């Protein structure tokens, strides 16, 4: 048995080219592994398989595709039972909803493995919680008012209707009845036998079309009718009057007949005798018809081969297709044609199949760096003034080619042929980049040294008395670049009496390093000595002389060399193997380079070579590495562009082309590139598309219903009336050859009619001649044209035929007019520049060859109409369909700076400083030009360069003359010894001036001014004579103040007297900056990046200067630092980079797109350009306008328009089943909603796309007494399902309904069902429903439901929350004249108001009587005490509120 490890990671190329591997081993059935040979090799599982390796750029190719969320379903219980919708639902219940998630390819929407998309984004959730709103009952509107009762006696009905506002949702109650009927009040019964009825002729629907039975047709061509409909036999019959014209390719049309019933109905819905409804003309009960036949197609073709013929895996399947043709179209209302093309995915499997090719981006080598492209951006008028160098742009070709396995690439060096770029996925490599051409700089050399002594050219072989004096200079900075040049470094002048010098070295004694013995060192002494004798060389002071310059002949001689020639093969040099040269490039052997050497005199002319010293003669030959020859490498030609497989219309010449790309230019004598990179040829065997058209035959005679059938049903024998005529239609090619029907169906829209209605006039009908042709039109736009016809036969004598309104004999119409009105439409387009002629060019155009500014044209569309205001083609008004006018796109003006100023003076007059040059702003940019650099606030300049500079500190120095003789300060002339003074002259001179002329003494350092006088003494003969002081000994470099320095002198003549001589030594401490100094190198800051004069950007150099500075800050000569062996900085110059300022580079404009609309106003065309290279640095920014638009010419829109449905035509009946028709008409409009369409000739719209079923439909007219459906109600307002006032969904819904109307109570059982329609809608609102109540009236009130927009409805409000419409007292009111009233805590019985008035009346009357009695007693008797009596108060009866909800 074999065992498998899991598949490993997908490795290899991006996409389907990846490979997965796994380990396969053989193991025994008992579990131990064994050798692979023990397992059956034929059953061995594969170790590798192809896989899809996901790379980052695949995120642009694949994405998650999610469906909409499915309906929310209730969460099931643990056992899978769905929760019931409980009555306790308040607002909503919890549920779950699902959706499907797939990873798809964006290009063709095919599904791939989910792992690919999971590499970029997690898989979206497929399940989420949701809410299911509580059940919503159907909501209906209020009833309409009751219909009016008709007058007359008998039982009458009146009705009222209502409409559906919201359908039942989520299990809510269905809609109630939308109709209510009731009998009219106080119906007046009719006397017996005198009931008032109306009678209507009712027509039934037409039966299906059928053919007569054989027995209905006699041999003479007459037919007999058989009404037996239970016969199922199908008899095919052919009869002269029923047979269409036959054609080999045509559809045989059979004409049959159909019938309908006619009966008389009473207004109460009952049938009556037909004689009560007889009218003239009587409706047709039989008519001709076309026997329906379904569309007939051929069998399916076999499946086409799979579009993929190689292995690509299940992630990228191919497809295959099959088709079938139409043999016969449907006629007579038969079933239409099914789908004619079928496609399905297919995957090609099989180990023998090769893997599908994979493609990847390839590039050529970078082309030569072009500096001129950037220089022209800086200055459009730039022209070559010297070798251009610095920053530039280089390009390369980018192409798509088939990927090869690594092993095959190593074996074959063939370059893959380019293929279509669409085959390569992922971003393409850049086709351009910034580059740098190194600038050449000459050597920087030091000043000349002093002339040396006169020496023999060769001391070993002295030639006579001829010698040379030489001087040297050395290279301070090497040259750079290919054209960098170094001047000569040695000059010679001839001299006479030369001397050869040599060094004589002697060794001193050995001085031990430690103690008195052991290792030590010797001090060597070297003496410069000439060869003539043993005389020592003069001291160094004597080797220096000062004299006036140029006192010798101008005879400087030096060697001049030509540049080195190319490296060439040398037969004498042994060929070496290919190696790596100095610059790291591969080389092929060793060769030699040569150059010429000249002896030049005084920079003027060439002289004989023997006049220059041979010892300094430069080399003329040197070895070099031979560069390898590089042959031109081009790709193979691409495949020829495919010739069209399909036929071509017209006489167009189709060409195919192929190309190849240079990916390596020839170099070093390699094979040159071919001249032909693009080839073109005409396609062969391109077939012209045949033009197919329908060929109709003549219409047949008008075919009527068979005579026997007509006579049996209608009782008439006259063969007249409506019939049908047919024709055969075949498909033919442009050379009149018969063709398949499918060919004509492909090229035309639909098929001409095969049958049409016709009329055979009856004896009583009016007959006419055919219409004449229209009369010709005059040139006048107001002219009309007419045509005529005449009555024929007996019709000329019939009175009804003379009625010109019914039967017009003349038709008049307005003539077409060629006067057109032009009107501009839309805005002006962008300013469009003329395009130069474009050559077919592959690859990138770095310098866009299309102009970006200047004079152009702008366009405005023209709307053209005739004198009636109908839109017509704009070519009638303007050849191009546009108004044009000139325009100007202002050219961008870059920031303009001045030229470089001269270098300023060094900021320091002595030592190191900085010198600066600047550029100033001349003109500011505008129109999108290159912006200016930021102003340097420190230097107040737009651009500046700073470099270090060095001024010699001893440029102005003091020059002293010799001291005068010592002048004794004694007045006695006789004394010639003792103290005195001596003087000298000093002056300030410019050392750079060869004349040494004096300058103003203020220019010299005043601190270093030498003394003009000094004390002196002349020693008397008896005094000690001491020598001059020697030099002070050196202080240690650390200038330690504890260290001392010493100087000495020695006695030259002792004193003759006893006086002691002066001291012979002196010491002093080493004090820093007084007698001891320290030295250090001083470095300047780095300069700004310096470019060559011919460069504007790219590689440059930054330099700094080095000086030697004493510890007291005084600059000194460099040898001071060198003597102290100070560490010298290594780099005095470093490379640097000046960023290239690159203007935005744009591609050319693409071609104009197709118009966004096929006709009418509002269409736009656009074109686009792309950014090839974005702006860099302070380059000219990219324009914001990367696409341009212009309005399309306003062409008229022709379209077929369907008219409104006509009234239901019953063809003679009063009610029943009929037909509605609508017309189609060709109209023209300009595409605007506000523009009214105008009818025009049908020919302008082309063939009609409408079938007969679109133009005709069945309908019915209810008879009096019939129960029938109303028209559809208006669509209700769009309503959203909401929970707690918040929208539950994005799409709302609206409804409409049809209900039935009962005309007669006897027929109400046969009423149709009411109909409800619901459709989704947008822009819906949330509505809420609340109960509304009226005021109480006699313990009753009205309760209704109202929607939040104020509409009263039925349904929608919660039944549990419905307020009570009737109220009762608890306990009940049982007293007379009492009723319920509302108090704060409930309802209480109260007495009636009439009781209160009576009590008040009795009390008031008693009170008046009492007053009268009292007054009488007062008058009769004495005055008594007044007596006052008040009626007892009534106690109110109060009832407690028991909390009943119904109160």
Question: Describe it for me?
Answer:
By secondary structure, the chain is mostly beta strands. The chain is 5% helix and 32% strand. It is built from 8 helices and 95 strands. The strands form 38 sheets. Strands 15-13-93-92-91 form a 5-stranded antiparallel beta sheet, with no helix packed on it. A 5-stranded mixed beta sheet has the order 20-19-17-81-84. Strands 38, 39, 40 and 43 form a 4-stranded antiparallel beta sheet that branches. A hairpin with a 5-residue loop joins strand 39 and strand 40 (586-594). The longest helix has 28 residues, at 1393-1420. The two termini are 88 Å apart. Mean pLDDT is 78; it is low at 218-249, 409-413, 547-553, 574-584, 837-849, 1391-1395 and 1423-1447.
Topology:
Blueprint lengths: L1 E3 L6 E2 L2 E7 L2 E4 L5 E2 L13 E6 L8 E5 L6 E2 L17 E7 L2 E5 L5 E2 L1 H5 L8 E7 L5 E3 L15 E5 L2 E3 L12 E5 L15 E5 L51 E5 L2 E5 L4 E2 L13 E5 L5 E2 L20 E6 L2 E3 L12 E6 L12 E5 L8 H7 L11 E6 L2 E5 L3 H6 L6 E2 L12 E6 L6 E2 L20 E7 L2 E3 L12 E7 L4 E12 L7 E11 L26 E5 L6 E2 L9 E2 L5 E9 L2 E5 L3 E3 L13 E7 L5 E2 L20 E5 L2 E3 L13 E5 L9 E5 L10 H8 L6 E6 L2 E5 L7 H7 L7 E6 L23 E5 L21 E5 L5 E6 L28 E13 L15 E8 L6 E2 L13 E9 L1 E3 L19 E9 L4 E5 L6 E2 L9 E6 L2 E5 L7 E2 L13 E6 L6 E2 L17 E5 L2 E3 L11 E5 L9 E5 L14 E6 L2 E5 L4 E2 L1 H6 ...
Parallel strand pairs: 17-81
Antiparallel strand pairs: 1-4, 2-3, 3-6, 4-5, 7-10, 8-9, 9-12, 10-11, 13-15, 13-93, 14-16, 17-19, 18-21, 19-20, 22-24, 23-25, 26-28, 27-30, 28-29, 31-33, 32-34, 35-36, 37-41, 38-40, 39-40, 40-43, 41-42, 44-46, 45-47, 48-50, 49-51, 52-53, 54-55, 55-56, 57-59, 58-60, 61-64, 62-63, 63-66, 64-65, ...
């Amino acid at each position: 048995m074999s065992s498998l490890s899991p598949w490993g990671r997908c490795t290899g190329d991006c996409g389907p080219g990846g490979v997965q591997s796994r380990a396969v081993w053989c193991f025994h059935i008992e579990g131990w592994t064994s050798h692979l040979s023990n397992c059956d090799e034929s059953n061995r599982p594969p170790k590798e398989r192809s896989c899809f390796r996901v790379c980052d750029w695949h995120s642009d190719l694949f994405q998650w595709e999610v469906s909409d969320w499915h309906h929310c379903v209730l969460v099931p219980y643990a056992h899978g039972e769905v929760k019931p919708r409980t009555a306790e639902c308040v607002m909503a219940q919890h549920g779950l909803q699902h959706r499907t998630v797939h990873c798809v390819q964006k290009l063709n929407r095919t599904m791939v493995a989910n792992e690919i998309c999971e590499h970029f984004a997690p898989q979206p959730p497929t399940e989420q919680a949701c809410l299911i709103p509580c059940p919503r009952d159907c909501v209906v509107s209020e009833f309409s008012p009751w219909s009016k009762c008709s007058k007359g006696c008998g039982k009458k009905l009146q009705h009222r209707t209502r409409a559906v506002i919201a359908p039942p949702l989520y299990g809510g109650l269905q809609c109630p009845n939308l109709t209510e009927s009731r009998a009219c009040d106080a119906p007046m019964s009719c006397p017996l036998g005198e009931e008032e009825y109306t009678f209507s002729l009712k027509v039934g629907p037409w039966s299906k079309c059928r053919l007569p039975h054989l027995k209905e047709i006699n041999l003479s061509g007459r037919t007999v009718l058989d009404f037996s409909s239970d016969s199922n036999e199908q008899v095919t019959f052919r009869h002269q009057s029923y047979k269409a014209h036959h054609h080999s390719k045509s559809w045989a049309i059979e004409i049959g007949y159909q019938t309908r019933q006619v009966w008389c109905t009473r207004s109460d819905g009952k049938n009556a005798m037909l004689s009560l409804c007889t009218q003239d003309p009587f409706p047709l009960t039989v008519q001709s018809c076309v026997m329906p036949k379904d569309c007939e197609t051929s069998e399916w073709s076999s499946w086409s081969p799979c579009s993929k013929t190689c292995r690509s895996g299940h992630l990228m399947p191919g497809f295959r297709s099959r088709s079938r043709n139409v043999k016969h179209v449907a006629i007579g209302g038969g079933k239409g044609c099914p789908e004619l093309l079928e496609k399905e995915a297919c995957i090609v499997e099989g180990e023998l199949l090769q893997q599908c090719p994979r493609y990847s981006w390839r590039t050529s080598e970078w082309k030569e760096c072009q500096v001129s492209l950037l220089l022209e951006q800086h200055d459009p008028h730039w022209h070559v003034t010297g070798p251009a160098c610095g920053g530039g742009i280089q390009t390369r070709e980018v192409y798509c080619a088939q990927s090869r396995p690594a092993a095959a690439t190593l074996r074959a060096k063939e370059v893959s042929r380019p293929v279509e770029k669409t085959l390569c996925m992922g971003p393409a490599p850049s086709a351009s980049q910034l580059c740098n051409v190194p600038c050449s700089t000459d050597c920087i050399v030091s000043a000349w040294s002093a002339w040396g002594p006169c020496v023999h050219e060769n001391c070993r072989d002295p030639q006579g008395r001829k010698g040379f004096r030489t001087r040297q200079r050395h290279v301070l900075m090497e040259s750079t670049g290919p054209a960098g040049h170094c001047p000569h470094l040695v000059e010679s002048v001839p001299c006479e009496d030369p001397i050869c010098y040599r060094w004589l070295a002697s060794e001193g004694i050995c001085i031990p390093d430690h103690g008195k013995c052991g290792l030590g060192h010797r001090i060597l002494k070297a003496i410069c000595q000439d060869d003539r004798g043993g005389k020592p060389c003069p001291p160094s002071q004597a080797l220096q002389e000062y004299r006036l310059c140029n006192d010798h002949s101008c005879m400087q001689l030096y060697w001049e060399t030509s540049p080195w020639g190319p490296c060439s093969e040398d037969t004498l040099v042994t060929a070496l193997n290919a190696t790596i040269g100095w610059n790291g490039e591969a080389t092929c052997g060793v060769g030699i380079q040569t150059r010429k050497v000249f002896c030049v005199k005084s920079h003027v002319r060439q002289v004989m070579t023997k006049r220059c010293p041979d010892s300094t003669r430069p080399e003329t030959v040197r070895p070099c590495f031979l560069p390898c020859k590089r042959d031109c490498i081009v790709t193979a030609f691409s495949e020829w562009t495919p010739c069209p497989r399909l036929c071509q219309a017209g006489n167009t010449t189709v060409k195919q082309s192929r190309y190849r790309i240079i990916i390596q230019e020839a170099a070093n004598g390699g094979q040159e590139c071919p001249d032909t990179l693009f080839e073109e040829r005409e396609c062969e065997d391109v077939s012209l598309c045949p033009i197919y058209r329908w060929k109709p035959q003549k219409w047949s005679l008008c075919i009527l219903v068979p005579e026997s059938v007509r006579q049996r049903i209608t009782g008439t024998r006259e063969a007249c009336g409506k019939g049908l005529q047919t024709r055969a239609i075949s498909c033919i090619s442009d050379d009149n050859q018969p063709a398949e029907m499918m060919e004509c169906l492909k090229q035309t829209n639909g098929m001409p009619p095969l049958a049409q209605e016709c009329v055979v006039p009856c004896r009583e009908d009016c007959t006419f001649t055919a219409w004449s042709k229209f009369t010709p039109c005059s040139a006048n736009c107001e002219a009309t044209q007419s045509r005529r016809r005449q009555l024929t036969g007996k019709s000329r004598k019939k009175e009804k035929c003379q009625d010109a309104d019914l039967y017009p004999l003349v038709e008049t119409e307005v003539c077409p007019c060629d006067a057109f009105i032009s009107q501009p439409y839309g805005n002006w387009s962008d300013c469009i520049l003329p395009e130069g002629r474009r050559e077919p060019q592959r690859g990138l155009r770095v310098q866009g060859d299309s102009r970006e500014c200047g004079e152009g044209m702008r366009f405005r569309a023209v709307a053209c109409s005739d004198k009636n205001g109908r839109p017509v083609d704009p070519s009638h008004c303007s050849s191009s369909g546009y108004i044009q006018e000139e325009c100007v796109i202002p050219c961008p003006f870059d920031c303009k700076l001045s030229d470089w100023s001269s270098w300023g003076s060094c900021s320091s007059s002595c030592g190191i400083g900085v010198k600066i040059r600047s550029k100033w702003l001349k003109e500011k940019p505008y129109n999108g030009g290159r912006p200016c650099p930021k102003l340097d606030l420190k230097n107040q300049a737009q651009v500046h360069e700073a470099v270090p500079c060095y001024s010699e500190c001893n440029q102005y120095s003091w020059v002293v003359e010799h001291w005068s003789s010592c002048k004794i300060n004694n007045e006695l002339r006789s004394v010639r010894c003792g103290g005195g003074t001596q003087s000298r002259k000093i002056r300030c001179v410019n050392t750079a001036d060869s004349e040494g002329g004096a300058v103003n003494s203020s220019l010299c350092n005043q601190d270093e001014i030498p003394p003009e006088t000094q004390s002196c003494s002349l020693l008397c003969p008896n005094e000690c004579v001491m020598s001059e002081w020697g030099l002070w000994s050196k202080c240690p470099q650390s200038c330690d103040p504890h260290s001392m320095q010493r100087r000495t002198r020695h006695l030259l003549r002792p004193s003759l007297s006893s006086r002691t001589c002066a001291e012979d030594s002196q010491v002093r401490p080493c004090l820093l900056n007084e007698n001891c100094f320290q030295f250090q190198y001083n470095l300047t800051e780095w300069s700004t990046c310096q470019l060559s004069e011919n460069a504007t950007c790219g590689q440059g150099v930054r330099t700094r200067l080095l000086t030697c500075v004493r510890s007291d800050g005084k600059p000194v000569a460099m040898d001071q630092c060198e003597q102290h062996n100070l560490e010298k900085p290594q780099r005095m110059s470093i490379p640097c980079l000046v960023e290239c300022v690159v203007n935005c580079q744009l591609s050319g404009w693409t071609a104009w797109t197709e118009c966004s609309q096929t006709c009418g106003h509002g269409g736009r065309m656009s074109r686009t350009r792309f950014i090839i290279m974005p702006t860099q640095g302070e380059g000219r920014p990219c324009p914001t306008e990367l696409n341009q638009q212009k309005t399309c010419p306003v062409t008229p829109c022709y379209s077929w328009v369907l008219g409104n449905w006509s009234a239901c035509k019953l063809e003679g009946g009063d009610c029943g089943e009929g037909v509605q028709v609508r017309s189609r008409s060709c109209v023209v409009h300009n595409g605007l909603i506000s523009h009214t369409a105008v009818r025009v000739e049908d020919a302008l719209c082309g063939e009609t796309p409408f079938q007969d079923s679109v133009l005709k439909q069945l309908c019915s007219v209810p008879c009096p007494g019939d129960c029938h459906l109303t028209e559809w109600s208006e669509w209700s307002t769009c309503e959203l399902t909401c929970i707690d006032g918040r929208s539950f969904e994005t799409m709302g819904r609206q409804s409409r309904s049809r209900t039935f109307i009962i005309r007669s109570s006897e027929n109400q059982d046969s009423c149709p069902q009411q109909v409800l329609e619901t459709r989704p809608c947008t822009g819906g609102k949330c509505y809420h429903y609340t109960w509304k109540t009226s005021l109480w009236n006699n313990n009753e009130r009205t309760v209704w439901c109202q929607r939040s927009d104020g509409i009263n409805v039925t349904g929608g409000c919660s039944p549990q929350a419905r307020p009570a419409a009737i109220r009762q007292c608890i306990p009940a009111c049982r007293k007379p004249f009492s009723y319920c009233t509302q108090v704060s805590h409930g309802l209480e019985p109260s007495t009636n108001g009439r009781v209160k008035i009576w009590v008040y009346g009795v009390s008031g009357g008693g009170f008046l009587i009492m007053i009268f009695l009292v007054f009488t007693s007062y008058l009769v008797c004495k005055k008594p005490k007044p007596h006052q009596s008040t009626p007892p108060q009534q106690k109110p009866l109060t009832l407690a509120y028991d909390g009943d909800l119904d109160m």
